[in-house]
Design a protein that fits this description.
- The chain is mostly helical and about 110 residues long.
- The chain folds into two domains: about 35 residues, no CATH class; about 70 residues, Trp Operon Repressor, Chain A (Orthogonal Bundle), CATH 1.10.1270.
- It is about 80% helix and about 0% strand.
- It is globular and about 40 Å long.
- The termini are far apart.
- The model has no long low-confidence stretch (mean pLDDT about 95).
Length: about 110
């Protein structure tokens, strides 16, 4: 379910635009234009925090790897448990993609 506080025409347009991007290079180009470097780094950091929490890492491990504050880690953890499942969706897909590329790497040996 989409949070009604987020749902509007401009946010719809942003989401539709992201879906039009083809590949990592286009994503870099778009996000460099639409975000500040700090905003983009913060988004990337939160995704890594979510991935590490999902994998069972401790706060200390996460702080050491990402530099995220414990407040950021707590917020991401709260989203993982009580959020809209956006992290869950992408983390599952990332894991499947990594597992698939690992199998392809093994086939290429």
């Amino acid at each position: 379910m989409i949070n009604p506080k987020l749902k509007d025409d401009l946010t719809d347009q942003l989401c539709e635009t992201v879906l039009l991007l083809r590949g990592v290079e286009e994503c870099y180009q778009f996000f460099e234009d639409i975000c500040t470097i700090s905003e983009l780094k913060a988004l990337a950091q939160r995704l890594e925090v979510a991935r590490m929490l999902n994998a069972g890492h401790t706060y200390d491990d996460i702080v050491a790897r990402t530099g995220a504050s414990t407040a950021t880690i707590s917020r991401v953890k709260r989203c993982l448990h009580y959020g809209a499942d956006g992290y869950k969706i992408v983390l599952e897909r990332l894991q499947k993609k990594q597992e698939g590329s690992g199998a392809q790497d093994a086939d290429n040996r």
